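Consider a typical record:
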Amino acid sequence: MLVATPVGAQQAKASSSAETVADPQDGTQTTSTLPVSIEKIKAALKQPAPTLSLRTVDERPTFRVQILERQKIEELLATLDFRTAPAPAGGLYGYEMQRQMFPAVDNPLRQPYAAFNQAELLTILVENLMGKYLGGKALSAVTKAEREHAQAAAREEVRRTVAEYCAAQPNGGAGIVICNTEASAPR
């Protein structure tokens, strides 16, 4: 009785039809209003199932990998301007005036490296030579190591993405070339 009250309170939909339903307990037939049509369900079940399209089985998945790595050292070196020397104190005109008024021949302590002794001059020479001849090789070794690390990380990301793609395919991607373990191994 409690169950029948809410069901009876519902309004029947316009598309529903009166159905004759046989009561299995006593064998009597009653007419009831159902929200669905049993005849429509039977007709739909008798129709053949739609065929599956296998066009996408032969399609190869398209992956695009793009590595964006900031070239920190190269960008920094590109911004430096080595063509000009730093401006002397007092500007170019003040430097020229000092050079004319106090020539370096007459004033040996006014020469560019006069403040350094022989050992300090040797240290400056060695530092400049190492920077010029060994600095480029060290810089290229560092950038090469960073590039190899970025490539290894990109390969691992592609391998992981392909594995996720293959796992999402029916049958674990069986029949798809990229999903074969030999084809997806890094080269």
Remarks:
- The longest strand covers residues 18-22.
- The mean pLDDT is 75.
